[in-house]
Amino acid sequence: METEKKTLELTSDGDLSEQIKLVTKESHVRAENTELMLTFQRGKVTLQQYKLLLCSLYKIYQALEDVMERNSDHPGVAPVYFPAELARLSAIEADLQFFYGQNWREKIVVPAATERYCHRLRQIGDENPRLLVSHAYTRYLGDLSGGQVLGRIAQKSMGLKSREGLSFFEFPGVSSPNLFKQLYRSRMNSVELTEEERKAVLDEAVRAFEFNIQVFDDLQKMLSITESQKQDCSTYSRLVKMLPLDGTMSKTIPLLRVGLGIFLALATVSMGVYAL
Predict the structure, then answer these.
(1) Global pTM?
(2) Rounded Cα gap, residues 269 and 276, in angstroms
């Protein structure tokens, strides 16, 4: 409700870039304070976290760059369409190949929140391309702003000896991030919008942040479930090693089978609940 009130107050005049910054301020803080993003800031990101994040970023940028290209001549998209400078998809593909190998496409796993985000991008790409500026601004400028710093943190945190696997954070087509961001914002501000259209763009910017927060939270849930299952498997392995090797083994096997059945059932239920 508060966000809606702010949006209404901002629609009359002012630069679009500044208005988006103001209306998404609270959401920005929430995104930075998700558990996944805090691990980056603390320099504790794990290889598993980063690989899962890359999978979702691949799907998101695949959808975003597809709809941006298809609508590149649209008056609301053309001013902020910078494929040579900002495109991320090929860089993410290189990173995924580095970590997963040649068959990386077969190993992509994403949470439901990522699929919802991609669906929204394709929906507005078909129905209202003018709203794409909200998502382009949120993703591209966010990645450009934190790219160099987060790349160094990730490299150190994961113990990587080179920058291989970190192409996502590199923007070779941008010589000066600060100057480019100024150019991008000026292009955004040049987009002509009615008051109703401006309100829709601002609302969509808030929604873009919400989608990203949901993706971060869902990824962390996936990691927590995976870690829990690893611990369960480790506990089960220790129990197996403790089993007697004499004649009493025949009496233990039925109990072992029951235990295995319960373990598998619990694991299946946990994944089913998460999928909802």
Answers:
(1) 0.79
(2) 11
Q: How many CB atoms lie within 10 A of CB 262?
A: 10
- Cβ atoms 119, 140 nearer than 8 A: no
CA–CA distance, 1 with 170 (Å, rounded to integer):
38
3-state secondary structure the chain: CHHHHHHHHHCCCCCHHHHHHHHCHHHHHHHHCCHHHHHHHCCCCCHHHHHHHHHHHHHHHHHHHHHHHHCCCCCCCHHHCCHHHHCCHHHHHHHHHHHHCCCHHHHCCCCHHHHHHHHHHHHHHHHCHHHHHHHHHHHHHHHHHHHHHHHHHHHHHHCCCCCCCCHHHCCCCCCCHHHHHHHHHHHHHCCCCCHHHHHHHHHHHHHHHHHHHHHHHHHHHHHHHHHHHHHHHHHHHHHHHCCCCCCCHHHHHHHHHHHHHHHHHHHHHHHHHHHC
Structure tokens, 32: 């930075």
Query: Each residue of 173-226: pLDDT tens digit?
Result: 999 999 999 999 999 999 999 999 999 999 999 999 999 999 999 999 998 875
Q: Is the dihedral of CA 29, 31, 32, 33 positive or negative?
A: positive
| pLDDT tens profile 111-161 | 999 999 999 999 999 999 999 999 999 999 999 988 778 889 999 999 998
Tally of CB atoms within 10 A around 239: 12
Mean pLDDT of 220-248: 56
